[in-house]
Design brief:
Blueprint: H1 4-22, E1 30-35, E2 38-42, E3 48-51, E4 57-60, H2 68-76, E5 83-87, H3 93-96, H4 99-102, E6 107-111, H5 112-120, E7 122-124, E8 127-129, E9 140-142, E10 145-150, E11 153-159, E12 169-173, E13 178-180, H6 201-214, E14 220-222, E15 229-230, H7 231-253, H8 258-263, H9 280-294
Parallel strand pairs: 4-5, 5-6, 6-9, 13-14
Antiparallel strand pairs: 1-2, 2-3, 3-4, 7-8, 10-11, 11-12, 12-13, 14-15
The chain binds zinc ion.
The site of zinc ion has 6 residues, from loops.
Length: about 300
Amino acid sequence: MRRLPIILSFALFATATLAQDRDFSKVEVKAAKVNGNVYMLTGSGGNIGVSVGDDGIVIVDDQFAPLAPKIREALKGITDKPIKFILNTHFHGDHTGGNEIFGRDGTIIAQTNVRKRLASGSTIAGRETPPAAKSALPVITFDESLSVHVNGEEIKAIHYPHGHTDGDAVIYFTKSNVVHMGDDYFNGTFPFVDVQSGGSVKGLIANVDKVLTTLPDGVKIIPGHGPLGDKPSLEGYRDMLKGTWAVVADAIKNGKTLDQMKQEKTLAAFEHYASDFVTLDRWTETVYNEVSKEVKPETQGP
Ligand SMILES: [Zn+2]
């Protein structure tokens, strides 16, 4: 009997947390001009990139379905033109949740694996997502790259394999000099790497390195999460990824276990990247799980 209130309060807490997660009534969707034809929308979930011009609107990612009216309202503040194309940087629900609404207005375009994962449903970090509605599925898919020629520029989607997931695309607004990196870039925090969906830390580092070689100076970078970035901020992120990899590799060579690394805060120098979502411990574990496949403790024998 005495345990009941504890269980109850836990259940209430869990419900409250869930309800809070799902309550979008207080979310504000705000638009800010980035460069050229391109704007960035922030609200809840992944940042949205927007191209506006005579041909209509192209949006890159669309957050959550309940936010669709607020996203529309924010777009109305920029232009009266209709939505023509929706590009998805990857399949996660905080980037594709609005597909089922906006897919009725425009054509959804994504990398092949995005469609596969949306169509089949998936488990992300232990949470199950059911198969997406038909209107949420990409109509046009590509394996490597695809271009949309609208609003006076080439909007180029390029697939970068096995980074955040196995279906990531980086979107280049070539004339506006803006890039949307999707979740291959968390600006200012440790990233979530969806290993279960084909993501990898090593692949992520390779992707960011490669993207950096393609970026012109002065480029503005819309990250999947976090504030607008630029080339120096992306370089800093790349250095953090490589830095944490190197520190964990050294610790493994010195015989440290994952538990010891957590206890001793092996990655303390990078603690300012920790968030509620990806804590220092979680990032240590993500990196450890991968590095430990390649790096082994150096045996100290005679
Ligand atoms: Zn994601």
